[in-house]
């Protein structure tokens, strides 16, 4: 039987403080959090990072990952150690990054080659620091398709260079299943939500869908709720309960 870790992405509540988020999580029995580098945990604010770590310890909540907005092929890889140090201050060895700044089909061969080499360079930095860099399968990045993501993983070929997975709200259920199956061996964490295009719906409406998604992954995963259907922190309890139903 699989044992999942359930948690939350802090960017779900950018208008709330780390303390407010941790209090809400504790009430919902969510024990893992991915802090975002944009609002809650900037990489260059060491004092804030240390305070967040103290709060985590107080609430017995573990940092599963550091959600950065570092874009490989755009940002200088010389900046990566700053993000890696921030992740370690929070108590995690997993960082989420974005790969490039446009969809895979928009890259010329030369641009793709440059991007892939940047990713390989980043993987070597990650290996040196004993962390994992995980690409998010996000629109308007190179990993927007399963083919592009798989090609990238095969090229970099490093245990320090991995993937996240989440369903693409603009693609069909079958397309999302295909992506999940192809990238399952490379996937570390999963972002969980129930969207259709630009519309957000309660996770409870997609219990069976998510059970099928999770069946694509052979190993236990960390499942992180991302955004509420109404963007309200008061809805976290209902969404967390639905997340637990998915993993029953």
Structure commentary:
The protein is α/β, with parallel strands linked by helices and 248 residues long. It has one domain (5-246): Alpha-Beta Barrel (TIM Barrel). Helix content is 39%, strand content 20%. The chain has 8 helices and 10 strands. The strands form 2 sheets. The chain has an 8-stranded parallel β-barrel with strand order 1-2-3-4-5-6-7-10, surrounded by 6 helices. Strands 8-9 form a two-stranded antiparallel ribbon. Helix 2 links the parallel strand 2 (32-36) and strand 3 (62-72). The chain is globular. The model has no long low-confidence stretch (mean pLDDT 97).
Low-confidence stretches: none
Strand order of the largest sheet: 1-2-3-4-5-6-7-10
Q: What class, by secondary structure content?
A: alpha/beta
Q: What would you say the CATH architecture is?
A: Alpha-Beta Barrel
Percentage of residues in strands: 15-25%
Number of strands: 10
Major sheet summary line: 8 strands, parallel, barrel
Rg over alpha carbons:
17 Å
Compute the number of structural domains.
1
Q: Treating each run of at least 4 consecutive H or I residues as one helix, how many helices? A: 8
Give the helix level as a range of percent.
25-40%
Q: SSE order in H/E notation? A: EHEHEHEHEHEHEEEHEH
CATH class: Alpha Beta
Q: Output the CATH topology.
A: TIM Barrel
Question: What is the oligomeric state here?
Answer: single chain
Which outline best applies? globular
Query: Taking all residues together, what is the mean pLDDT?
Result: 97
CATH homology group: Divalent-metal-dependent TIM barrel enzymes
- Gap between N and C termini: 10 Å
